[in-house]
Amino acid sequence: MPLLLDRSVDRFETGSGLLLSEHFQMAYTTNDIEAARALFSGRLGIREFRRLEGALPQGGYIKADFAWVGTVMYELIEATGPGSEIYSGRLPQGEGFHIRHHHLGFLIHDEQQWEGVFQQAEQNGWAVPYRSRNPLLQACFVDVPELGHYLEYLFPEQAGLDFFDSVPRS
Fold it and tell me: Sign of torsion, CA 93 80 159 129?
């Protein structure tokens, strides 16, 4: 089916504003990834996810499920233990299932855009409370308090692009 809107990709200029990057991802954090997956599958229509999981650098544990719907990747995250606060810190406390919007994800194409993220954060007085590098990609979260969620920037290596290509499409 053809797209109804022309969504051609222009040259993104992250250094001109943090929303001027290639937005491709919506992410949610939860205290129960299986319940979140059931919600997104059974009630919201996403048929299949791909999971990544492993230890966090500070000793906690993270599970993340990914699925494409058209041009948008959905990510579900459950993190526990030391180092998980960046993911679980904004979830309600207490019993029962909780899920909240965590971040919008933006794809970074080159070193100039990557540096533009940090320049914009600094110019606007926004914290970058998380930064990582692994064999798939470099990533960071920018905290824009007025939005109530993070902005995540992903600067992938080829292995990261290959992972994104391997994520199921609903």
Answer: positive
Contact 77, 27 (CB under 8 A): yes
pTM over 0.90: yes
pLDDT tens per residue across span 15-39: 788 998 999 999 999 999 999 999 9
22-166: which CATH number, 3.10.180.10, 3.40.50.360, 2.60.120.330, 3.20.20.70?
3.10.180.10
**CB burial string 136-158: b at 16+ within 10 A, e below:** bbbbbbbbbeeeebbbbbbbbee
Closest to 136 measured CA to CA, from 114, 158, 104, 152: 158
Using the structure block, give the residue that is written with the tokens 């949610």: 28
Gap between the Cα atoms of 22 and 31, Å rounded: 29
- Joined tokens for residue 149: 């969620």
Contact 18, 151 (CB under 8 A): yes
Q: How many CB atoms lie within 10 A of CB 106?
A: 23
